[in-house]
Design goal:
The protein is an alpha+beta fold. It is built from 32 helices and 22 strands. A six-stranded mixed beta sheet has the order 1-2-6-3-5-4, sandwiched between helices. Strands 12-13-17-14-16-15 form a six-stranded mixed beta sheet, with helices on both faces.
Amino acid sequence: MKVSRSYLWKKFVLIWLWCILLNLQGQTMAEENYIDLTINHLKTLHATLEKITLKNGISCLFKRDISAPVVSIQLWFGTGSIHEEEYLGSGLSHAVEHMIFKGTEKRKVGDITREIDNAGGSVNAYTSFDRTVFHADMPSRTWVTGLEVLSDAVFNSSFPAEEWDKEKNVILREIAMNNDDPDSVLSKMLWQTAYKVHPYRFPIIGHEELFKRIERNDLLKFCRRNYLTDNMFVVIVGDVEKKEVEAALEKNLGNIERRTRTPVILPKEPEQLSARITRQTGKYELGRMELAFHTVPLNHSDAPTLEILAQIVGAGDSSRLNLLLRDKLRLVHAVSAWSYTPREAGLFGISAVFDPDKEKKVLQVLKEEILSWQKVKFPDNEIQKAKRMLIVQEMNGFQTMKGQADKFAAGEFYASDPSFTETWIKQLAKVTAEDLNNAAKKYLNPETASLAILMPETTVQAATNINTAVEKKVPTKVELDNKVPLIILEDNKLPFVSLCVVFKGGVLIENSTNSGITQLASELLLRGTPKFTAEEIARETESRGASLEPFCGWNSFGLKGRCLAQDARFLMSMMAECLINSVFPENEVEQYKSLQIAEIKQKEEDPVFIAQKSLGPLIFGDHPYGRDLLGTTGSVSTIKRSDIIDHYKKLAVAENMAIACFGSIEKSTVLFFCNKIFGEIPSGKPFDLSTCVPQTPHLPGREERIFPKEQAVVLLGYKGISITDPRFEVSRVLQDSLSGLSSDLAEEVREKRGLAYYVGAYQRTGIQPGAFVFYAGTHPQAVQELEVIMRKEAKRLTEQGIRQEELERAKNRLLAIYEMSLQNNTEVAMNCALNELYGLGFDHLYATPDRIKAVTAESVKNLAADLFKEELSAVSIVSPTLPSTQDKNK
């Protein structure tokens, strides 16, 4: 039988179309399966979530999780800055948040934070537009202390008059700090422009002139009216039994009196009828803008659509705005989109940072892009990528006890459903291309937008069994065939895999002429290979809801990533592709040089950075540790593509690296794929980071600089120790004893004298000896006094030593930090890989508790005596006026 060509051709076309249909159907089924699996995980997480209600109406969301010996406690109140009524715009709710911890009848000033610190926990609070949250994260062995202290603080706060006088000065410093931060200034401008009636127009921290009028009686009146049993709920998540929780709740909250409360009625914001623009100039290096549109509250059917729209157009390197404005047109240094849909109608916004002369063009392109979102259908691959990214973000929140508590509480607060994440993901999954076009048409009208612009002054205007206990596991180390150490931890709690590849290098091997080159090289790793363009790398990664990002530090650099377990091989392959075959395209080199220079300029607007920049050369001299990670505008501008390639090839060798893979994947699978995928890493000469340039410090030293901002910054620094020094944990105890609100330094500076908003100590540590620094942010008139107090505290620790109470509090806090760190697989994997790289051993992290417990008062005193020597000290002061000028003015 003879078959015609036309018949064969038709048959081929039909088979081809059928294959496409099957492929599309398979993709759809895979997506549905992925979402179903996610929902099943959430159902498992939520299955053991319980609600406990006391007789006085206080309810508690409780979930037991024994995967780490940690308990998170949160008290949520439905009172925020928009509920201040006659005090509107004063920041009264934020002031209450500060004063809650200033003592009760049972506890004097400082006792609240001290008790939490002594128990190894951390306590804090925050105020938002619509809520105030008090929270503590505790070791499970002392969790009851956290609930007891929080309950007493919130319901029995005495608001001492003398403490209010001091705290007012502290909050005024915080207001000044916000005034110095361009992002805070821009945000305040936007909300004041977009809202004319609704209380969203007032900054949460309040206007300075209104805040100054608040009296102690106002705090008492506001608290009695709002911080009541029917306006709150409690969340407790962690390694604790339900019976313990019920007993502790009844004991600490069961006797709180139930009282009546008049609800606050909020005015509705009138429809915006025309565009609004506000502009401000200041001591800035770069231009910034916020473009926003009025939208809907969370309970509106368009809320998930707007979330996906923001994700598609402005989240991630492969988002539309990044690809167009940053990568193709080179108009911006940074751009993003966001959707804010709380209880009240919110905003959809676009944020951008750019060179001042490009303002007009940026706005023009944004307007054209927004119109295209209204008319052109969004491709399915973009929609699926956005959905996956958002769903992974939601799941990321469940890693830690605090993250789970946040999720459950947010669901309860905004949707009256602690398992609302399930509903939210289902809503996201239903969003279509048509929904996106319709939402863009309905809400993103440039004719009714609000635009805030901040510019430099010189600018011309222009699924497991829920009853099965989670086994606590530790990593193991194997070697690949090329001798690269591979650290593996199997952890099936969540369906994620974390992967870190680290190399020796970083700032430590740079010099003054190529400073910033390692940071630049690491950023360029994801900007193109022979197989993939930068856009394809970003799209392929983000479409799976995965993350892949570079990092660079003082002693190392590399890549880290996270993905769903089913995408582990993809992540390994993509990471290896970027590490082995990156081509560092010339156009990308120039763009990222421009971005890095812009970031340097942005940091130059921060007085803290300026103070640190001046302190570095005093302590380190010409040693690399004295320079900034990003380099200087001069050094970065002269770096060539060939320099980057030579620099990278010298470092990225098998003898100079370590790999860590943690998560829901079998050890044998990890070893097989890593051998296959990372076996092509080239061999080379290993680096000995301990033999780099010796320090030639200029000590004692002093640098004072005038900087036209409101706040002054004082840094007192000393030569430090290395991370391989056997006294490293001793130095951490010493640092912690000087930090936190319950430290002697904070009590003297903040509580007794009200001199500073922030004060404490930090270390910059590395393979070679680093720096130990006291720091404080204050007003110009207090600079000299603060320096005297810091030196006095250093002398006390040197001569008298640390008190036993201080020692135990610091050790407990560090133990709690260690315990809480175990909740984040990516960070633990990174830590293990770096410790192996530095010669400390992959399991060095897990002996941290023993090293901390071994620290004695005598060892702290001896270290303080070694470090805090006047002849080895350096002072860096940045202030609107210098101390010498102040003396003359007096």
